[in-house]
Structures are given as structure tokens and as C-alpha cells.
Amino acid sequence: MPKNKGREPGPPMKTRDRIVETALALFNEKGAVRVTTNHIAEAAGISPGNLYYHFRNKEEIVRAIFDRIIADFDLLYGRGKDAAPAAVVFFSVFIKTCDLYYRYRFFYLELATLLGQDPILKKRYVANLRTRFRQQKDYYGALIRAGVLLPSSEKELVGNLTNGWIISDFWLTWLYISDAKITPERIGESVRHIYLLLKPHLSPEADAEIRALLP
User: Domain for residue 72, yes or no?
Assistant: First the structure.
């Protein structure tokens, strides 16, 4: 019998990682509120006791997913931050965030509920928000110095950052209450709204470059 020349299967996923991946899939499919730890254990093919060895409750699983969200956004923003300030790099990051909002869509669809149910998660979310806000404010300053964004007052800068954050983190909520289907394409529509928000503050050259990126 000929040997299989295909790629060898990778190492099995660790139980903790399998629990998190299974929970993420179930949360995205059914909503975190409707999913119990028993549902997660059954779908992961483990006993409830095995799940509780790794996580004491569902809230800890959601926090583990949030840790992944932070890590994925850190990786994405890090790539943009390391590049020279430019319109294409600046807006490409916004476009790529849509993939993450879709991957973790349950979290943003149920954000207020999840934070209201778990003070520890809320504290982490707020701390991350403040860190991101400072990072983006610094990056906007670099874009102004590079001529991508036009000079603006501190009040305008903070206002644009706040409005952009609201559009990004709550766009899925808007789609939900609009009875729109949650798809990568519909999530991607948020990018155009961020563009319209920033358009008055873009240099003519940056505006032309960004419009060429928009779907």
C-alpha cells in the first residue's frame, strides 16, 4: 500500500483551547446567553467535570475569548503602527478589523449584556478601551504630522476617535436592530461610515487613496 504523501496531521488541540474554540462557535451560532457550560462540554466531546477543571464557569470562558480578541487586535494594530504613517496603511487596518468583528461577532452583538453580567470582564474591556484610545490618539497625531490628516483641535480629535470607536464596536448592534443579516460584507459597511466621518479631515491626496480602497 503506498504511503500517504499528504501533510501529516498536526498535534491535537489542547483541551483548554478546544473548549474556547467550541464555545466561540456556539456563541456565534446561538448567542452566549443561550449557551450553557453543558452545551459547550457536549459539543467539545468532554465531560462537564473536564470543562470545570479548566474553567470554573461560562464567564471565565468569555474572558478567555476576550483575551484572544485583545491579542488579535494587538497583532493587527501592531502591523499598522510599525509601518510609516500613510493613508493606505491607516485605512487598511480599519478594513482588516472587519474580519475580527465577524470572527468574534457574538461578543459585540451582546456587549452590553456580557459586560453587565461580569464586572471583571467590564473592567478589562474598559482598560483595553483606554489603552487603545491612547494608542490611536498617538497614531492620529503621527498621521497629522505626515500630512494624511489635516490639523485639528484636541476636541475634534477626541470626538473623531470616540465616534469611530462607537461605529466600530456597535456596528453589529445596528445591523441587528435593523434586521440585517450579520455577514462579513455587512460588517464591512462600517468602514465606509468611518471614511465619511473622517473625510472632512483628510488631505486631498489621502482622500483619493482611501476612496480607491473602499469596496
Answer: yes
For the record, the C-alpha cell of 193 comes out as 461610515
Domain that residue 45 falls in: 10-56
Residue 3 lies in a domain: no
Q: Please check whether residues 32 and 110 belong to one and the same domain.
A: no
For 86, 94, 135, the CA distances from 159, given in Å and listed in that order, are: 21, 18, 15
Grid coordinates belonging to 76: 493587527
Flag whether pLDDT at 82 surpasses 70: no
Nearest to 23 by CA among 88, 114, 126, 157: 114
Angle at 161 between CA 158 and CA 167, to 5 degrees: 140
How many Cβ atoms from other residues are within 10 Å of residue 161's Cβ?
17
pTM for the complete prediction?
0.88
Give the span between the Cα atoms of 28 and 104, in whole angstroms.
7
Q: In this structure, what DSSP letter does residue 45 have?
A: T
